[in-house]
Amino acid sequence: MSEKATVGSFNNIIEKGVIIRSGVQITNDISIGKGSLINLNCTIGHDSVIGKFVELSPNVNISGHCVIGDLTSIGSGSTVLPNIKIGSNCVIGAGSVITKDIPDNSVVFGVPGKIIKPNN
């Protein structure tokens, strides 16, 4: 974990092999699954769960009370609004704004984010 990252001191679970880069802001009551990458300048809001082997590209904003499934990749500059669940094995395109739940195995792009195709 970068010494230039800020991680809240209350009730966070960060599993083995997680990489947290410089400028990251992690609040409280967060769980991050093993092998995940939280890239430069990302923000993770309170009471959120990040699955295993998730990749957050630079400048991703995950709002509070979100769930990101295993093996999901979220592109640079994307925003996930509060109380959203993104399923496992999803790809979220750069700059997308996720305003509703996304099912497993989806490729999503746009503002607001729309499912473009299945991720097989």
Overall tally of structural domains: 1
> Can you tell me the overall shape?
globular
Radius of gyration: 13 Å
Structural class: mainly beta
Average per-residue pLDDT, rounded, comes to 95
H-E string: EEEEEEEEEEEEEEEEEE
CATH superfamily: Hexapeptide repeat proteins
Spatially, the strands of the biggest sheet line up as 3-6-9-12-15-17-18
- Beta-strand portion reads 25-35%
CATH architecture label name: 3 Solenoid
Report what the structure shows.
This protein has 120 residues and is mainly beta. It has one domain: Hexapeptide repeat proteins (UDP N-Acetylglucosamine Acyltransferase, domain 1), CATH 2.160.10. It is built from no helices and 18 strands. A seven-stranded mixed sheet has the order 3-6-9-12-15-17-18, with no helix packed on it. Strands 1-4-7-10-13-16 form a six-stranded parallel sheet, with no helix packed on it. Strand 17 and strand 18 form a beta hairpin. It is globular and about 40 Å long.
Give the helices and strands, then pairings.
Elements: E1 6-7, E2 13-14, E3 19-20, E4 25-26, E5 31-32, E6 37-38, E7 43-44, E8 49-50, E9 55-56, E10 61-62, E11 67-68, E12 73-74, E13 79-80, E14 85-86, E15 91-92, E16 97-98, E17 106-109, E18 114-118
Parallel strand pairs: 1-4, 2-5, 3-6, 4-7, 5-8, 6-9, 7-10, 8-11, 9-12, 10-13, 11-14, 12-15, 13-16, 15-17
Antiparallel strand pairs: 17-18
Short précis:
A hairpin with a 4-residue loop joins strand 17 (106-109) and strand 18 (114-118). Helices cover 0% and strands 34% of the residues. With 120 residues, the protein is mainly β.
